[in-house]
Specification:
Helix content: 25-40%
Shape: globular
Structural class: alpha+beta
Largest sheet: 3 strands, antiparallel
Protein name: Antitoxin HicB
Number of domains: 1
Organism: Sphingobacterium hungaricum
Strand content: 15-25%
Number of helices: 1
Number of strands: 3
Oligomer: single chain
Strand order of the largest sheet: 1-2-3
Pfam families: HicB_lk_antitox (PF15919)
Order of helices and strands: EEEH
């Protein structure tokens, strides 16, 4: 299973937007950090499922050494 870095952005009105730079357009939101991370995991799974359904290449995961 691939691992992907996420970017958390705290919103001024509350909550967190999460993006996955390696997966263009993979963006989600959570009311708190825990929910945002959980939502990111789900968004990544759905994104990869969609790529598989289309027969497209799955992007390699991010290196943990780059963290």
């Amino acid at each position: 299973m691939h691992r992907y870095k996420i970017h958390l952005h705290q919103e001024p009105e509350g909550g967190f937007t999460v993006s996955v730079p390696t997966l263009p357009g993979c963006i989600t939101y959570g009311e708190n950090i825990d929910e945002a991370i959980s939502m990111a995991k789900e968004a990544i799974e759905l994104y990869i499922e969609e790529l598989q359904d289309r027969g497209e290449k799955i992007p390699a995961g991010d290196s943990l050494a780059d963290s």
